[in-house]
Amino acid sequence: MSTAPVRVSVRREIAGADIADIAGRFGTPVYVYDADTIRRRCRDLAAWDTVRFAQKACSNLAVLALVRRAGVLVDAVSTGEIHRALAAGYAPHAAPGAAGPQDLPPAHPIVYTADIFDRDSLDAVVRHGIHVNCGSADMLEQLAARMPGASVTLRVNPGFGHGHSQKTNTGGEGSKHGIWHEDIPEVLRRAEWAGLSVSGLHMHIGSGTDLAHLAEVAGALERVAREIGRSLTTISAGGGLPVPYKPGEEHADLGGYFALWDATRKTLEADFGHRIRLEIEPGRYLTAESGFVVTEVRAVKRQGGRKYVLVDAGFNTLARPVLYGSYHPMSLCPADGHASPEPEEVAVGGPLCESGDIFTQADGGFVATRSLPAAQVGDLLVIEVAGAYGFVMASNYNSKPLPAEVLVDGGTARLVRARQTPEDLTRGETV
Ligand SMILES: *Cc1c(COP(=O)(O)O)cnc(C)c1O
Predict the structure, then answer these.
(1) Is 26 exposed, middle or buried (0-12, 13-18, 19+ CB in 10 A)?
(2) Residue 240 Cα, ligand 1 centroid: separation in angstroms?
(3) Which of 230, 241, 244, 412 allows an S-S link to 249, with CB 3.0 to 4.6 Å?
């Protein structure tokens, strides 16, 4: 267990690349990812047979190619994410007859995980032969009609869930996700009638939860696995691994978590008499800490007793604070000639025409303040731990272009997605 690095409130570089130089070359606001941090997070999970990246957390092609080279497979929740996985070099399906090491069943490079097929995602799955993780029983007949004899994974809602926010809780009666645990016998009959075999079992109870809640899933999965029986060759613990955002928060005990799941896997292997592949499906864990939003301070003003620092990024750039009241560490990169500023209490906001456009807000939308080095117009403000559910949730609200994305590797910053242009904003529209 390691504590989160102490957040320096003045920061001049990201992974050896000069922040002022990045802002000068690529403009602001800009997302910056540190490749080494992503690789390190992939290595943390090396004990698992399969690490499957839930790309919805950060789906830039350069990031997908990076995790692919680190041996990580990928999850897709839409046609667009299938397209991204293929474009980043993932094979659509395992080579026929390919077995993994130690007689493990082959892993599917891409898995489509969703509660529905829209018409184009069903087309894409069929066209490329992509393995499906079904979150609703209706998907079984829809798939069987187009891919007779396919094997599938079932996503089961164990009847409980937990997330960092009620909006990211994906289990229990309050969640639309997965097949209800009590319906398994009926769903297995439907799968058999449709001519599909059930080779995988998956549970994902929420995002940004904690290990105590996640640990309850192993027992629930074991019970459902016994109902499915010997056709099962892969079990997935889902994602949800927490990361430290606030000062003092720690990394979770991943060794203990793996040991718990490994024991579940071994119990099932003994019962079924064959090897079982053990998967984990993190999104946030692999990329959150790698990501930074670099913004420029454009105004500093007082409203009565409160001081506001206004930057050129808003909730169009990073939505987590307005969506969930999420906390992101921040630091200042002072402009040349602006030396060692003293800390002061400020609220940080963006340019959007909406009062909720505040990065320092508590759950419920209340404006909070943060102690930051006194900022001046022209300084750069860096919003940290922004690499998961950051760019991917950015929008064109207020007709703002999507920001650029930059990857820093070996101290060198490289543009991996160009900032949108004004023409991009009106593409496809007619007067
Ligand atoms: C979102 C999601 C994940 C990843 O969740 P994190 O909290 O980012 O790890 C994993 N699996 C499924 C099915 C998801 O929807």
Answers:
(1) buried
(2) 6
(3) 244
Q: How far apart are CA 3 and CA 253, in angstroms?
A: 11
Q: How far apart are CA 10 and CA 14, in angstroms?
A: 12
Residue 293 pairs in a beta bridge with 31, 383
Q: 205 exposed, middle or buried (CB, 10 Å; 0-12, 13-18, 19+)?
A: buried
pLDDT of residue 19: 98
Question: How many residues comprise the chain?
Answer: 431
Tell whether pTM > 0.85: yes
- Cα–ligand 1 centroid distance for 127 (angstroms): 25
State the angle between helix axes of 184-194 and 138-146 in degrees (0 to 180), rounded to the nearest 10.
Answer: 10
Give pLDDT < 50 ranges for the chain: 1-6
| Contact residues for 26 (Cβ-Cβ < 8 A; gap 6+) | 404, 406, 413, 415, 419
Q: How far is the CA of 23 from the centre of ligand 1 (A)?
A: 31
Looking at the CA of residue 206, tell me the nearest atom of ligand 1.
Answer: 7
Q: How far is CA 415 from the centre of its chain?
A: 21
- Residues whose beta carbon lies within 6 Å of some atom of ligand 1: 54, 56-57, 75, 113, 204, 207-208, 238-241, 281-285, 388
96 Cβ partners below 8 Å, 6+ apart?
none
| Known active-site residue 58 | no
Ligand 1 centroid distance, CA of 248 (Å): 24
Nearest to 218 by CA among 241, 235, 199, 194: 235
Q: Which atom of ligand 1 is nearest to the CA of 281?
A: 10
Marked catalytic residue, from 42, 134, 333, 353? 353
DSSP, collapsed to helix, strand or coil, labels residue 93 as: coil
- CB–CB of 53/286 below 8 Å? yes
Read off the amino acid at residue 245: Y
Identify the burial level of 329 via C-beta atoms within 10 angstroms of its C-beta, where 0-12 means exposed, 13-18 middle and 19 or more buried: buried
Helix (H, G, I), strand (E, B) or coil at 312: coil
301 forms bridges with which residues in the sheet? 308
Distance CA 332, CA 374 (A): 9
Q: Which of 55, 207, 245 to mutate to test the pocket of ligand 1 (most atoms within 8 A of CB)?
A: 207
Q: Given the DSSP bridges, would you call strands 343-349 and 404-409 parallel, antiparallel or unpaired? A: unpaired
Ligand 1 atom with minimal separation from the 202 CA: 13
> Whose structure tokens read 């997302």?
31
